[in-house]
Amino acid sequence: MNGYKIKSFRINQDTNESIEIKIAELCEVNYGYYIWPCSIKMARFIHQNRNGIFNLKEANLLEIGSGTSLPAIIARKFCNLNRVIITDHLEQNSKLFDLIKKTLNLNKIDLLNRLDDENSNGICLEHFDWSDLDQNFFKKLPKIDFVIGSDVFFDSAMFEDLIVAISFLIEFINKNLEFYTTYEIRSFNSYLKLLHLIEKYSLNFIKLEIPEGDHSELSGDEMEIKINSHEIVLLKIFKKI
Ligand SMILES: C[S@@+](CC[C@H](N)C(=O)[O-])C[C@H]1O[C@@H](n2cnc3c(N)ncnc32)[C@H](O)[C@@H]1O
């Protein structure tokens, strides 16, 4: 695969050792080929909650609009979870599949062929388009406990499709499903639109604290420069009771 570069992130362990995570980016114009600041925030959140929220060995985690997939890689490497499933709309983004495979290789993570594969080191990679809900995809999904999506609300014309997809997952896969999303406030009107849609589909949300940029936990090249663009909020979205 030509034209890619590798970004490195260092994650310090409690033992004073550090683990390097490598993420491949592709130098071409496409939203999915770059690590967005929201993804770094999400990765930090997951890492900081590896012994809390994301320490559930029976739980399955689905990342949507994964792009370069940093949060899913952190979840697989550091959290005690069952399945981690990476998704994006791969057919419209065909080189992304190869890019993600490269990242899995770099981090010595196996790519599983089946969602029910027992290999605990593995990750599944699936096509999922939130604007074109595919019954076959939903049929093969295990019970999903967590959905994560970083910078997936980037085009307000797509917000409703995505909220409908989340409502669908909650209704048909797991009523207790929790959706964590990092959202960059590029426009306040768009943010209000998102909050309105959450209400419209009888969902609830909590704005969570974003962990500080703590260099001792997850750090990498150019990261802080990118993060300082707009405010990024972390929302937990779930079914209203
Ligand atoms: C701004 S990028 C964020 C990528 C990555 N999550 C990150 O934060 O670095 C938006 C991602 O959403 C994906 N995407 C856009 N429309 C989509 C759709 N309808 N269904 C699934 N994924 C979609 C793109 O391919 C891209 O990977």
Task: Please specify the SSE layout and strand pairing.
Layout: E1 4-12, E2 18-26, H1 37-48, E3 61-63, H2 70-78, E4 84-88, H3 95-106, E5 111-112, E6 123-127, H4 135-140, E7 146-150, H5 159-172, E8 178-184, H6 188-200, E9 203-208, E10 219-220, H7 223-227, E11 232-239
Parallel strand pairs: 3-4, 3-7, 4-6, 5-6, 7-8
Antiparallel strand pairs: 1-2, 1-10, 8-11, 9-11
Helix pairs in contact: 1-2
S-adenosylmethionine (SAM) binds near residues 35, 65, 131 and 151.
Structural write-up:
The chain has 7 helices and 11 strands. It has 241 residues and is of the alpha/beta class. It has a single domain, classed as Vaccinia Virus protein VP39 (Rossmann fold), CATH 3.40.50. The strands form 2 sheets. The chain has an 8-stranded mixed sheet, with helices on both faces. A 3-stranded antiparallel sheet has the order 2-1-10. Strand 7, helix 5 and strand 8 form a beta-alpha-beta unit. Helix 1 packs parallel to helix 2. The termini are far apart. Bound molecules: S-adenosylmethionine. One of its GO terms (biological process) is methylation.
Order of strands across the biggest sheet? 5-6-4-3-7-8-11-9
What CATH architecture do you see?
A: 3-Layer(aba) Sandwich
Per the principal axes of the C-alpha atoms, what is the gross shape?
globular
CATH H-level name... which superfamily?
Vaccinia Virus protein VP39
Count of separate DSSP helical elements: 7
Helix content: 25-40%
CATH topology type: Rossmann fold
What is the makeup of the main sheet? Answer: 8 strands, mixed
Spans where pLDDT lies below 50 across 5 or more residues: none
Overall number of domains? 1
CATH class: Alpha Beta
Report mean pLDDT, rounded to a whole number.
Answer: 90
Class from helix and strand fractions: alpha/beta
Assess the beta-strand content as a share of residues. 25-35%
The total beta strand count reads: 11
Radius of gyration: 17 Å
Distance between the termini: 48 Å
